[in-house]
Amino acid sequence: HRSQSVDELFSLDTLLDTEEKEIRDTVRKLGNERIRPHLADWFEEGTVPARELAKELGALGLLGMHLEGYGCAGTSATAYGLACLELEAMDSGIRSLVSVQGSLAMFALWKYGSEEQKQQWLPGMAEGSLIGCFGLTEADFGSNPGGMRTRAKKDGTDWVLNGSKMWITNGPIADVAIVWAQTDDKVRGFVVPTDTPGFSANTVKKKLSLRASITGELVLEDVRLPAEAMLPEARGLSGPLGCLTEARFGIIFGAMGAARDCIESAVEYSKTREVFDKPLGAYQLTQAKLANMALELGKGQLLALHLGRLKDKGELRGEQVSAGKLNNVREAIKIARECRTILGANGITLEYPVLRHANNLESVLTYEGTSEVHQLVIGQALTGSSAFR
Ligand code: FAD
């Protein structure tokens, strides 16, 4: 019997148009040829050549790809999701690079920025010659960013920023940081060129997850910015939360990419590994595991596509994004761990992608809203009662 992929099992291709399939195939090719061969080394070394990668990803139109104008590709949201799926099939760190650049930093400028801010930053960020980061989380305020201590005070017409941000993807290498700070008039966003005096960044070391990604702390000590550095159209937490909804949308697809890569690896392994004189994949226990995982991967991709189509119609709601993120990341991490069992001892090494994906997905489960926060969002939608505090 010929063995088929989960995509074939669910005939997922019939749900995509030609352009979407082309984008998917282009990103998959880039991954196989240029990125996949290096992933184990980057993960082991705990770094990634983000600057060079950003230029390659930018050349393919993947940075800010669903935004219109300013050098961005302007694709559908579904096409952007499919690109995220292929990127995360490589490594969650590569998808994070694209999510933070496009959906967090560029989206903040695109949605809330002045015309001058957009002209100054977006074209360079779209081509990958400028790297952006997004500073919302602080060491003591993650799920509850409203408690943030970073403050922006007026001094004449200038703003002076003090505080620190933690866990900021690409913080140590960024050219520009979107920093959210308390002001006398709610939380506001600031466009901070990282060569501004008083701005510095430290790299977070000893991570066991998302190692092929650069994570840092931003420190702001009397960072003086002109009045025009504030994002004029974002006032209050709805600004940064709007950006997070964008990035979460990409994760709904992305997590399924990591899961697919694990299942492909486990299926391949099960066909060649012999135990007790027979291929592992010919045993019922192995097939039961593979069948159950295939169902979750297929259902998760169907959910992602459904939410993508809603987003393209402008009808996607926040609690639906929470449902997609919670389900798909939770199932992806279960799949990655189950695949690891199929690979036995080999599964714990970087020769195979499964434990790398499982470890990465620990971060994905926590960032962009933890699983518990998404349960609370869905619980609130179902009951009408907020249980956040
Ligand atoms: P906490 O908020 O302290 O949560 C701890 C636990 O408490 C969790 O289980 C949580 O679900 C639970 N909890 C919280 N509130 C409630 C409640 N009301 N009821 C029940 N349980 C609750 N942030 C950025 O701003 N920019 C970035 O680029 C960025 N990149 C990141 C990259 C990585 C690798 C990681 C790991 C994180 C990144 N983050 C970034 C931060 C991320 O968004 C936060 O870690 C996340 O919001 C959770 O915050 P916390 O870690 O402070 O956990």
TrEMBL record:
Residues 235-382 form the Acyl-CoA dehydrogenase/oxidase C-terminal domain. InterPro entries: Acyl-CoA_Oxase/DH_mid-dom (IPR006091), Acyl-CoA_Oxase/DH_mid-dom_sf (IPR046373), AcylCo_DH-like_C (IPR036250), AcylCo_DH/oxidase_C (IPR009075), AcylCoA_DH/ox_N (IPR013786), AcylCoA_DH/ox_N_sf (IPR037069), AcylCoA_DH/oxidase_NM_dom_sf (IPR009100), Glutaryl-CoA_DH_mitochondrial (IPR052033). SUPFAM superfamilies: Acyl-CoA dehydrogenase C-terminal domain-like, Acyl-CoA dehydrogenase NM domain-like. Residues 18-128 form the Acyl-CoA dehydrogenase/oxidase N-terminal domain. This is Acyl-CoA dehydrogenase family protein. Its cofactor is FAD. Keywords: FAD, Flavoprotein, Oxidoreductase, Transit peptide. Belongs to the acyl-CoA dehydrogenase family. Pfam families: Acyl-CoA_dh_1, Acyl-CoA_dh_M, Acyl-CoA_dh_N. PANTHER family: GLUTARYL-COA DEHYDROGENASE, MITOCHONDRIAL. It comes from Rhodococcus sovatensis. Residues 133-223 form the Acyl-CoA oxidase/dehydrogenase middle domain.
